[in-house]
Specification:
Elements (H helix, E strand, L loop, with lengths): L1 H27 L8 H26 L5 H30 L6 H43 L10
Length: 156
Amino acid sequence: MRKSYVAAHVYMIVGVLSGLYYRELTKINDFEGETQLGVLHTHLLALGMLVFLIVLGLDKVFGLSGTKQFTYFFWFYNAGLSITCLSMLYRGTQTVLGHEVPELFSLVGGLGHIILTVGLVLFFILLGNRLKEHESAARTESTEQTEPTEPVNSSI
C-alpha cells in the first residue's frame, strides 16, 4: 500500500510543478496558443495522483499489493505514464520555444499510451481475480453461518 501512496504523492508534486512550469514558460516567452504543456498538468494529476489514490483504496479493501501481478501493474503503469508525460513535456516545451518537433515524439507518446494500457489491463485482471476470491470467501462464510448447529435443549 505504501507504494501507491508514494506514487500518488510524487505525481501530485510533479503535477503541480508541471502547471507552474507551463504558466511560467508561456509567460516568459509571450506564448499564446495550444501546447501539450497545457494538458500535462491534468495528465499527471488525474492519471497519476488520482489513479493511485483509487488503487490505494482498492488495495485496502482487496489486498492487491504484495503480489507479482501488482508489481507488474505498478511498473508497467508508471513506465507508460512517465514515457507519455515526458513526451508531452518535450513536445510542449519545443512548441512554446518555436522549435520543430520531430515526428518520432508522436510515436514515443503512442508507445507510452500502449504501455500504460498494458498496465491498466494487468490491474483489471488483478482486481477481477481478487473480487472472485473475495466473493468466494463471502459465500463460504455465509454458508458456514447458515448451517444448523446443535439443537438447544428447550426442556429447561
